[in-house]
Amino acid sequence: MADAARRNDGPVDDLGAPLGDAGSRTSGADGEDAGSDRSGPGAERVSRTVLAAADISRIVSRMAHQILEKTSGGAGVVLLGIPTRGVPLAARLAARIHDVEGVAVPTGSLDPTMYRDDLRLRAVRPLRVTDIPDGGVDGRVVILVDDVLYSGRTVRAALDALAEYGRPRAVQLAVLVDRGHRELPVRADYVGKNMPTSRRESVAVRLTETDGADAVLIVSPDEPAPPAAGAGR
Amino acid sequence: MNRHLLSTADLRREDALLVLDTAEQMARLSDRAVKKLPTLRGRTVVNLFFEDSTRTRTSFELAAKRLSADVINFSAKGSSVSKGESLKDTALTLEAMGADAVVCRHPASGAPHRLAGWVHGSVLNAGDGTHEHPTQALLDAFTIRRRLGRLDGLAVTIVGDVLHSRVARSNVWLLHTLGAKVTLVAPPTLVPHGVSAWPVDVSYDLDAVLPASDVVMMLRVQQERMSAAFFPTEREYSRRYGLDADRAATLPEHALVMHPGPMVRGMEISSEVADSARSTVVEQVANGVSVRMACLYLLLGGADERDEREVTR
């Protein structure tokens, strides 16, 4: 892994190379794409690539194997992606599981927006698609898939949303990046990459399906800003 | 989004599409066992109805309850209004009770607009006089888009008592915003003054317009608002402007027949057409709940902007 050496836990502000990515979608607040509306004009940002496309591909393969191992071959598993980027990740995991073991794992999406605890702290959020696969979630092992695990609040909301669709036998969590700073007792069962970050930074996950290319970047504000700019609420 | 929903004339295209997209997600709820969402818990929605309405009031009530809001129904009959209280005093009373949104129906055009200047919460116009009925237009647009897949470029014909119809007005503005081409068909006496300023074509000949219509929206003849004789007899109106099976047969294969309800069967629409596969009358009612949930969510679901006291128009 070429980037492994750059992934160090030390101060990160000085490592960045400026990228002209005004339209980049950053996953600041607990792993969903709330960053895009924050990166307004004038928000100078410095970002560095932490995972390249090949890294992401290897990580997804490993996670698929881990899921198969932990669920004894994927029996009864349903993958539910949390929009936006959890959905293509869930599809990729399902495809990889199919390649390895020949099992077709039902895949869908679960939008936790209306169950969030911070709705009234921000402008209204648009709703995303919830698509529970045929067969439902009753008695299944539901694996929630998201791109970034941060405060844990999205996952809490997703657990509430999921309960409205039935009673899974178990719920597990798979994330591409765990960036720390949990505010709730939430832990992922499958972690692609543990990525220590500062609250001021954002983690931007880009996937071919949603952004045209695969990469994970850490985005820091250009100058050290006193309030937690990238940390959301 | 504006803070209030008073009219479709001032609804921007992206906001209208946001309502329709949000309603699409809300509609998926009706497929699941638990239809309730916690989203508006702790919020209070007041249904303030100065005119009889079952359909719209229950639809708003159900929409608010599905989002876990508390709902208070306040109707003019048997309330302080019948004792002579003014609209403003009623509004201030509701305000003092902590209403986050007021859903208002009033026989006077512009009443919800006045209300919006007096209360801090959001005001949703549920029909004011002969002015507008924005959620009806939004649910009509939603129904068309669900059935035909798009709105852009569609030919929509609105037939009947346009003069007294707030549904027609709201639909004209919304459908125009969303790219549909609207034709009004009515007896000359039931075409409003100033219609030349609207983005519509006007025709007096239903038979000429039907073969090129993707959607036909039939309006009820509002006898209760008619102060004069606008047409000789009901039978003659029905013969010239009613939609019966023979007329409906001249529509294109895919065309929809819509009616905002309540229908007067045998007058503007025959039973055969109202119950046909191309009729969306029942769907419109179901879609109404989804669209009103979307409106309530978009107006109340985000940060409280009570500090920014403003009037939209």
Query: Which class of the largest domain in chain B in CATH terms?
Result: Alpha Beta
Q: Please, how many domains of chain A?
A: 1
Write out the strand line-up for the largest beta sheet of chain A, numbering strands in chain order.
4-3-5-6-7
In angstroms, what separates the terminal alpha carbons of chain B?
A: 13 Å
SSE order of chain A: EEHEHEEHEEEHE
CATH superfamily of the largest domain in chain B: Aspartate/ornithine carbamoyltransferase
Kindly state the percentage of residues in helix of chain A: 10-25%
Radius of gyration of chain B: 19 Å
CATH architecture label name of chain A: 3-Layer(aba) Sandwich
Structural class of chain A, please? Answer: alpha/beta
- Strand-residue proportion of chain A: 15-25%
The CATH topology of the largest domain in chain B:
Rossmann fold
Record the strand order, biggest sheet of chain B.
7-6-5-8-9
**With helices defined by DSSP (H or I, 4 residues minimum), what is the helix count of chain B?**
11
Tell the overall outline of chain B: globular
Q: Please estimate the helix content of chain B.
A: 25-40%
Pathway (chain B): Pyrimidine metabolism; UMP biosynthesis via de novo pathway; (S)-dihydroorotate from bicarbonate: step 2/3
Keywords (chain B): Pyrimidine biosynthesis, Transferase
Subunit structure (chain B): Heterododecamer (2C3:3R2) of six catalytic PyrB chains organized as two trimers (C3), and six regulatory PyrI chains organized as three dimers (R2).
Protein name (chain B): Aspartate carbamoyltransferase
